[in-house]
Amino acid sequence: MKLIKLLFCVLFVHFFFINSVFAGTITGTPTKYETTMTKFELCTSSACTTTTVLGEKTATFDIASASAGADVGDWISSFALEVGTTYTHVQATINVTFTIAGYITDDNTNGIAEDYCVTVASPETAASATTPAIQAGSNSTTNADMSWVVPNMTGTDYGDLTTSFGTNGITKTDGASTITWIGALTSPYTPTATSAPKFTMSFDVTNMLQAYGTGGDCAIYVKPPAVSITVTD
Prior knowledge:
The chain is mainly β. Helices cover 6% and strands 42% of the residues. Strand 13 and strand 14 (178-189) form a beta hairpin.
């Protein structure tokens, strides 16, 4: 027996990818934090071997935007849940290249030559799977959209991320164009014949734009926001 979706409310979609911490890190809040998702699924276990597809097409969402919830809600396809089946996790397939924007104020203790680290369209060293974006410091907060790439697990300037990726449900093959992320619901959800499921995600990107000094320049990257995922009637 199937339960047809009656209500789907999404406030946020985002995914953990890196928990590395650098010495002398400075932080700011991004004004843009775009991710491109190609598939989103609801799972019956942390392994996500049994899934219900909620959406499967390419779409980009700015999770720093107030309109993120409406944008994601429009993207989700119609779906049906099994009555009596308990759902515990979600799984997402995400492009490894993000678009970020913003600036970070330097406190002059991190070996950065100017007062700010800012995102730029063409950094001196472009972000890749092995290094953050690197750009000279700035005396202005003026910034532009910049690409950032989810790093490989090992062999990078970020150090060994094997434990971080495993803890946060990330699977990435070195050099791949996508990652998969599995995250737990705040509590398991079991629909009944009278259920009207409401799916809600919340987030906070405060201070998730980060940088550290390298030879007087800024190495710029992003960290994951706080995430809460709930399915209720």
